[in-house]
Amino acid sequence: MTEQAFSRARLADAGEGITLDELRLAGRNHAMPLEALRYEITPVGLHYLLVHYDIPAIDPDTWRLTVGGHVARPLTLDLADLRRAPRTDGVVTLECAGNGRALLEPRPLSQPWLDGAVGTARWTGTPLAPLLRAAGPLPGAAEVVFTGSDRGTERGTEQVYARSLPLAEALRADVLLAHGMNGGPLPPQHGAPLRLVVPGWYGMAQVKWLSSITVVTEPYTGFQQATAYRIKQRPDEPGEPVTRMLPRALMVPPGFPDFMTRTRTVDRGEQLLTGRAWSGRPPVTRVEVSCDGGESWAAAELGPAAGPYGWRGWRHRWRAERTGEHRLLVRASDASGRTQPTEQEWNLQGMANGMAQRVDVLVRG
Amino acid sequence: MTEQAFSRARLADAGEGITLDELRLAGRNHAMPLEALRYEITPVGLHYLLVHYDIPAIDPDTWRLTVGGHVARPLTLDLADLRRAPRTDGVVTLECAGNGRALLEPRPLSQPWLDGAVGTARWTGTPLAPLLRAAGPLPGAAEVVFTGSDRGTERGTEQVYARSLPLAEALRADVLLAHGMNGGPLPPQHGAPLRLVVPGWYGMAQVKWLSSITVVTEPYTGFQQATAYRIKQRPDEPGEPVTRMLPRALMVPPGFPDFMTRTRTVDRGEQLLTGRAWSGRPPVTRVEVSCDGGESWAAAELGPAAGPYGWRGWRHRWRAERTGEHRLLVRASDASGRTQPTEQEWNLQGMANGMAQRVDVLVRG
Asked: Looking at residue B247, what is its pLDDT?
């Protein structure tokens, strides 16, 4: 029990190390190790994972999903109903909105992500839109609230995790209620028995352990919508909501690592740098690599995308002729014209940070 | 690139926060979230994971395992050979030798585990002993060296991860070469295409991404055997090798958490506390729970073990009558007579720490 239990979120002091609270979160949740960028579909267990509270214990036999609120025909569905419903799947890249937070200065104290809060899975399920239409949103319907089963407190507010989408977004043809992942059943940590998948949006929209879907007439003001997941500079402003993923490219760190520092060693000569890039406003149109700490940039060769909202492979040949220390960077641009910044674009919660990845490499002769 | 790249391991200064090096490791590797103690077999993705260097990229079609060294008939096997070999499986609890390290004072800087570096899987593969006997260890054979495919530097020493077992231990009937986990193929992060499973030993013995098995006549002195994984108090002493797991019990934290602090809230009244306990010298013979910060202890009810080297469930009814803060502890004892200490038993590398788990709970009226 600490005094922090009900305190407000804070920023780390200058030079303050990672706190025990942050470490507890980092030990439970996990990033994708960056060498796993080699897999177009991220294997279960390597996909990034963020669980706000606890993974709930849900009995799939007694579990029900309700679709209600401002609708003509409220529905209650069991898992067999959802498995009998039209089946589709989608390869979707998901990224936590807080990816990169722990690299910010000053550092917002929350889940302390470095670079790797991302993954790409093949999600199998049934489209949401036909179910919503079967329930029949009434005139005046504005948003759809998705409520999970994971209970906790956050800055003093007891809650079950819930988020909303604008009705038009919820009715997109590619929004899924997923009960499978990568060809197998949905694992407990990814939301079994049923989760939402909203291609293009950051992870906070992808509500897991779904229990209810509620059509509402006013903007939803729950904690995870109106307090968390806001881009703002000061605690007293409402801020802008976090929505779609900004463009980001990541690189498989070349060579081999030092255990403790993760600094890389490569042999002198040509190195094939590879990685993947994504955006919530696809397609990724350009990936650029710098092998001199950001002074000069070269276009990488782009591969096909894993899906309309799946990441896209890239590669670039680096002639590592000079022995010694090098800093590699990579950045992506997307169809909306956005490009990753090379320096931080700070905000109070550390959300939607696109700062270009840095990889330090020692070239040996 | 930092000056620490080739430095010696060190201890954290008094009050020093978790370092960026530690956070990088915590973000890649992950503990089992403690609510996953509810599963007798830990789902893939929830089992603890420690990867020293990178997960190697191995083509299963060209991969080979050699069995050689001080033997009469060296062998080279491919994956089809191993899958055709007699098949067996075992439910085995694995724990990282560094579990609990980040709770020590002073804190050794390495992978900063709190409590959860554990998991239990059903490993499928072929017994090692018949393969070793087919190769025919010659007179004078003393140890068997298992070499993986994961390359890195550690305190300045470039290496491929390798560990040895005494010959008698390697010839135990329950030591497996595993190519499957929990009914599916072995995932990349757990050592695909083939890993060693030595029931009862800490995780460092469970060599992943196996490439060779070498019978030797002298004690193996590689980095991971002679330098790392030693229980010692000072840098200049050789220390004792880490071998079998000490007894440990863990509790599913009751109630629900605060997001940031993970402090638990439960409602006043009877609480069923549950968890699991294990030891490398099974069976677990006793689990005791304290609901008053360690002042008094009561025996928990024990369930069956998940296997000869699998953890054992326990439960205990707690009458949470007093509202306010409570500290719960749990400790296990095993057939060898060992009992978990309630205070730290410090060593320089933070290995084999059995200090009893503490769970802070707020009871509300």
From this structure: 98
User: Mutation test of the interface with chain B: which of A4, A18, A22, A28, choosing the one with the most B Cβ atoms within 10 A?
Assistant: A28
The answer on pLDDT for B5 being more than 60 is no
Min distance B241 CA to chain A CA atoms (Å): 20
Q: Can you give the pLDDT at residue A8?
A: 61
- Tokens 């990088």 correspond to B24
Average pLDDT over residues A16-39: 97
**A254-313 residues touching B, CB cutoff 8 A:** 256-263, 265
Segment B65-84, tens digit of pLDDT: 999 999 999 999 999 999 99
Contact A114 B23 (CB under 8 A): yes
CATH architecture assigned to A3-241: Alpha-Beta Complex (3.90)
The answer to whether the predicted template modeling score (pTM) of the entire model surpasses 0.90 is: yes
How many whole angstroms separate alpha carbon A190 and alpha carbon A50?
A: 9
In chain A, residues under CATH classification 3.90.420.10 are 3-241
Give the pLDDT band of residue A6 (cuts 50, 70, 90). very low
List of chain A residues whose C-beta atoms are within 8 Å of the C-beta of residue B327? 1
With 0-12 / 13-18 / 19 or more C-beta atoms within 10 angstroms meaning exposed / middle / buried, residue A324 is exposed
Contact call for B16 and A19, based on CB within 8 A: no
For residue A213, what pLDDT is reported?
A: 99
Report whether pLDDT(A182) > 70. Answer: yes
Question: Which of B16, B51, B161 lies closest to A262, judged by CA?
Answer: B51
8 Å CB contact between B84 and B179:
no
Kindly report, as residue ranges, where domains of CATH 2.60.40.650 are found in chain B: 248-364
**Residue B8 has what pLDDT?**
61
A17, B21: Cβ pair inside 8 Å?
no
CATH class of the structural domain A248-364: mainly beta
